[in-house]
Amino acid sequence: MSLDFAMLGQLTQIFGPSGSEEPVGEFIANQLRPYCDELTTDTLGNLIVCRHGTGKKIMVAAHMDEIGLMITHLDKEGFLRFTTLGGVRIPNLVGQRVKFSNGRVGTIGVEKLEKPSDFKLDKLYLDIGVSSREEAELFVNIGDTAVFCGDFVESGSRIISKALDDRIGCFVAMEALKRTKSTHELVFVFTVQEEIGTRGARTAAYALEPDLAIAVDVTMTGDTPKAHPMSVKLGGGVGIKVLDHSMVTSPQIKRWMAAVATELNIPFQWEVLEYGGTDSGAIHISRGGVPSGVLSIPTRYVHSPAEMLDKRDVEAAVELLVALLERPEF
Ligand code: CO
Ligand code: ZN
Questions:
Q1: Half-sphere exposure (CA, 13 Å, Cβ side) for 137?
Q2: DSSP characters for 46-91?
Q3: Residue 181: phi, psi to the nearest 5?
């Protein structure tokens, strides 16, 4: 299978923190226009891509937003204070570069600390290279958001980049839509605000009332030195979610996904994630409940500017999603 990883490279570098996903949606819409019947954006900003068919209405969800920062204060020397958008790890922030939608870049610094336990968000500041509040205001205002800088790099079979969570899910969904011969009613939803509480997926699932939903997102791994025990590793195949903090997958869905993967010789691994959640967490409890599953891309260093995954797992995910869309028989 030859996937367009150069397109993934572009997709990861687009600015799209929670609440500001429009540029990501625009890019995806342009890519998918030839492969669908209908493209709409809903009230919250979800991009909804439909390909009409008969039989089951299948919703595929992948979130467009990435974690980031929001500016809360500008001081008279021009230093900025900020809060986090999504699961940003505070101890990793010092020395990081962040970028605003206008392209302005800054470095995160930390005040002098009396003791290590004083290391908290309110001791950090952002330095955008100005000398006064007035000068800072030319570039940045209260409420502006920024994302981490993290180039897209291919290293052997591995990819390193910012925002693989969850542009890789968007990418897998896009590549699957381009390839699938499914005759079912397909609704691909590129969701907003997953990182701050799966908000886009919630309204989309309610409005669409799907018969089945599959989310595609990253999951963590247990394959690094002294990692928290977890049986997911890079290169081990696509993850089929069993559980995370937002859902427990029904036995029928798990069996169906694994049976299709086994039949087609697609490598997969069972995923039990002891923290975090995905769009399926919101979708499966929509209205009277929606049969839902998750395909996960094993990813190291999730929520850092250098997330890492393996291309072979991405290929397995696309292949399995294509097949599942063609045979929603669970
Ligand atoms: Co995330
Ligand atoms: Zn995610």
A1: 8
A2: -EEEEE--SS-EEEEEEE--B-EEEEEEE-TTS-EEEEEESS--GG
A3: -110, 20
pLDDT digits (tens, 9 = 90+) for 118-146: 899 999 999 999 999 999 999 999 999 99
Residue 194 is among the residues annotated as catalytic for this protein = yes
CATH 3.30.43.10 fits 68-148, yes or no: no
Ligand closest to the CA atom of residue 168: 2
Domain ranges of the chain: 5-66+162-326, 68-148
Cα 38 to ligand 2 centroid, rounded to whole Å: 25
Q: Which of 21, 66, 175, 194 is the catalytic position?
A: 194
What is the length of the chain? Answer: 330
Whole-number Å distance, alpha carbon 184 to ligand 1 midpoint, is 29
Cis peptide before 166 (omega within 30 of 0): yes
pLDDT at 53 over 80: yes
In CATH, the number for domain 5-66+162-326 is: 3.40.630.10
Give the count of beta carbons closer than 10 Å to the beta carbon of residue 1: 11
Give the gyration radius of the chain's Cα atoms. Answer: 20
